[in-house]
Amino acid sequence: MIIELNQNIMDSNDSRAEEIRGILAKNRVVMINIISSPGSGKTSLLEQTLEKLGAHFKLGIIEGDVNTNRDARRLERFGLPITAVNTRGACHLNSTIILKALGKLPLDNLDCIIIENVGNLVCPSEFDLGEHAKIAVSSVPEGDDKPQKYPMLFRQAKCLVLNKIDLLPYVPFDRQVFYRDIDNLNPKLPVIETSCTTGEGVDSWIEWIKGFITNQPRRLNQIDEGFSNFRRPERSR
Amino acid sequence: MHEFSIAWNIVEIITKAVEDNRLIRVDTITVEAGELRQIVPESLEMAFDALKTEGDRSEEIKNCRLKLVIIPQVVSCNDCECEFYPEDLCYLCPQCGSINTTVTEGEGLIIKSIEGETAE
After folding, report:
1. What does each C-alpha distance from A213 to A145, A155, A157 come to in angstroms?
2. Contact status of B40 with chain A (Cβ, < 8 Å)
3. A61, A92, A164, A208: which could form a disulfide with A124 (CB 3.0–4.6 Å)?
């Protein structure tokens, strides 16, 4: 006999993500999930972000790592609430891990939690963590073909940071190709070019995230309304 | 390798379905995965085969075969209402050029059905 199930395979993850959304709404906390491949500069971007955003909002961090707590240790100097989570080899964070991590953060005293996901462009985009926004970070040395190769993340992201632009003169990266593919995939996606080494463009990123946090309705049932009036910065250099 | 987590969820769901429907044997399960989910069929199959035969898994599912159907994307234009396939991953409406489009198919990930024998 054939039994029709029609059951969402991600149900268990998604229902916990829903629970997380409820907890965040109750505590009026905005949660951001930063996703990129390994080595594109997530932790460096986070360092810049904590330094510059810390004056405006009360921040907490969930630092995902496959192994070790090196990234979490790098961020300790900011003196902010930080929870390090190890996936023990798994290539993504899931909502169970995040739910547990939230329990270790002082939610009633935070405005925004930033999750640094495990370095990977495929798997983290499969897992709803209950976040308000996924932020994609791509970097110049990775090449201009990443949007075409990993469309799901670039479709889901609410903002894309193109990092390491100081390396543009040294590596083959066709900006036109990159932007053409982004415009085809997700024409509304704001792209912010940064270099965490020279500091270039970081202020534009800080402005975006400030706007996002400020404009995010932090009440339950309004949570999906996003921030959409950000204008993409000028591209030509 | 998100296929491993996905296979884990699949095994959990069919184990429960076996109990709920009092199945004595599961032959095939059909999984529908949207094209955008980027599932590697071989990886999913390998992970599923490893997990379904794990020590304490129920006997009923140990010979179950996973049938994976990839669902192609369908995008619909919210302005001119035409439906299209996003060639070269272009989600702009090919008819009116609108950026206001929605993926209506090709993002899901579901267990469609389960085929097996009941006790009666």
Report:
1. 30, 21, 15
2. no
3. A92
Contact B7, B43 (CB under 8 A): no
Mutate: best of A4, A5, A155, partner B, most B CBs <10 A: A5
Domain that holds residue B28: 2-73+105-118
Mean pLDDT of A207-217: 92
Q: CB within 8 A of B32, min separation 6: which ones?
A: B69, B71, B108, B109, B110, B112
Nearest residue of A to residue B88 by CA position? A148
Asked whether residue A228 carries a pLDDT value surpassing 80, the answer given is: no
**Chain B: residue whose CA lies nearest to A182:** B90
Tell me the domains of chain A and their CATH numbers.
29-215 (3.40.50.300)
The predicted-structure confidence for B33-42, as pLDDT tens digits, reads as follows 999 998 999 9
* Interchain contact, B2 vs A123, CB within 8 Å: yes
Looking at per-residue confidence, does A113 or A221 come out higher? A113
Domain CATH for B32: 3.30.2320.50
- Examine the pLDDT at A88 and tell me if it is beyond 80: no
A184 Cβ contact list (under 8 Å, min separation 6): B88, B89, B90, B91, B92
Q: What is the ipTM of this complex?
A: 0.90
